[in-house]
Write a structure and sequence with these properties.
By secondary structure, the chain is of the alpha/beta class. Helices cover 34% and strands 23% of the residues. It has an eight-stranded mixed beta sheet with strand order 12-11-8-13-16-17-18-19, sandwiched between helices. It has a five-stranded parallel beta sheet with strand order 2-1-3-4-5, sandwiched between helices. Strands 6-7 form a two-stranded antiparallel ribbon.
């Protein structure tokens, strides 16, 4: 497929190098047209090296090839990223001051704009009118992601992640209606962090979970267009912008919140590290250490199996609805079996649709910035491995969830 990739003059231009790589690795022939302003951020040498094609932004280069007409005519797809407020305005008003805007006027195939700008610029009435004009003419304009912008501000205006733009572009070419973002219109509930079970007003039983993976999942789902609800237990990292946050502490509090949230969720991802046991009794006062008394004995009782209850609730009240339940398993192997053997047994026991398996240890996963997981499916498909930063792993998990929602038949 012949793709024209227009690059606007915003700081997010650096992310477009990754988008270009996705296009070329998928076998597409890409011609990059940067605006003059964008070359202040990323030079033409980068685009030429990654695309394997010459790069220009002038209608006066290679005049004999009539590029200002040819490129648009020959393109199977035109993608503009980042689409700045200025570029959207020029496209909406039909300006043709450089090679990119000429190409947009000559484009015969689908056109996709991926906006990126400051929140106030995106929300300005002029920009909104330009977006509606372009959409009215048949162009696809993605909603920007929400989150940290240049400087200290946060809000809608971030360039969607390269994978999300790539997925939207492929869906657009295939004529699918979900081109905007793979989880657009979906509600995703994610649990994150570690629960704490009180022994007394001072002490608790806890675990080593930092919440990094759950927060990364919330960001990935948000960037994929979902409405995200984060059930946050103890976390060592802040909750991301642009998601609804509900704080919980104990396993019982998480259970109540998760069962309630599931009622209107398309996807439930239970990535929190939930305590299997809690103290049978909680002291109202601090348990004292005295030389003249015996060592205290703490009796534990089982906590409810929240993941299994979510599956049972789904099967009872939303049969055939297509709700996806995703569990996490932090496992270690022993003399009785390896990590995947225990995980496969857990998948069948819990009944969830996908199980993301971590091989954990004292120096693995908990608190780290990287991760390696295996995604198991109850449908019996081949295990899928994903590794890298927790952001990259989260994006792989969200892509798998998007695939399951769009390709797997509803569950009985």
């Amino acid at each position: 497929m012949r793709i024209v990739l227009g690059v606007g003059g915003g700081i997010a231009a650096y992310k477009v190098a990754s988008l270009l790589r996705l296009f070329t690795e998928a076998g597409h022939d890409v011609s990059v047209i940067p605006t003059e302003a964008s070359t202040r951020f990323v030079g033409t040498a980068t685009w030429e090296a990654l695309s394997g094609n010459p790069v220009s932004n002038s209608v006066f280069d290679d005049v004999h090839l009539v590029n200002h007409v040819r490129l648009g005519h020959e393109a199977d797809l035109v993608v503009v990223a980042p689409a700045t407020a200025d570029l959207l305005a020029k496209a909406a008003t039909g300006q043709a001051g450089d090679l990119l805007t000429n190409t947009l006027l000559m484009a015969h195939g689908p056109v996709l704009f991926a906006p990126a700008m400051h929140t106030e610029m995106w929300q300005h009435a002029a920009t909104r009118a330009n977006v509606e004009t372009l959409r009215g003419r048949g162009a696809a304009v993605l909603e920007p992601a929400s989150g940290r912008l240049t400087g200290a501000d946060s809000g809608p205006g971030r360039l969607p992640e390269p994978q999300a733009i790539f997925d939207a572009a492929m869906a657009l070419v295939q004529g699918r209606s979900d081109y905007q973002l793979p989880l657009a219109g979906r509600t995703v509930t994610i649990s994150a962090g570690g629960t704490r079970e009180p022994l007394d007003p001072v002490r608790f039983l806890g675990n080593r979970s930092s919440g990094k993976q759950g927060v990364a999942l919330a960001v990935a789902a948000r960037n994929a267009g979902a409405t995200v609800r984060l059930l946050a237990a103890h976390m060592e990292v802040p909750a991301p912008a642009g998601v609804e946050v509900q704080r919980v502490e104990t396993a019982l509090e998480l259970r109540e919140a998760a069962l309630a949230a599931a009622a209107d969720s398309d996807v439930i991802i239970m990535s929190a590290a939930v305590a299997d046991f809690r103290p049978a009794e909680v002291s109202d006062t601090k348990i004292k250490k005295r030389d003249d008394t015996a060592d205290p004995v703490i009796t534990l009782v089982r906590n409810p199996d929240i993941l299994q209850e979510l599956v049972e609730q789904r099967n009872a009240s939303r049969a055939g609805s297509g709700q996806l339940v995703v569990g996490f398993a932090a496992e270690t192997g022993d003399s009785q079996g390896d990590v995947l053997a225990y995980a496969e047994a857990k998948l069948q026991r819990k009944g969830c649709d996908l199980l993301v398996v971590n091989h954990v240890g004292m120096d693995k996963v908990f608190g780290q910035d990287s991760n390696a997981v295996v995604i198991l499916s109850r449908a019996g498909s081949e295990p899928q491995e994903a590794s890298g930063t927790k952001t990259e792993v989260s994006e792989a998990i969200v892509r798998r969830i998007s695939f399951e929602l769009n390709h797997v038949s509803p569950r009985a």
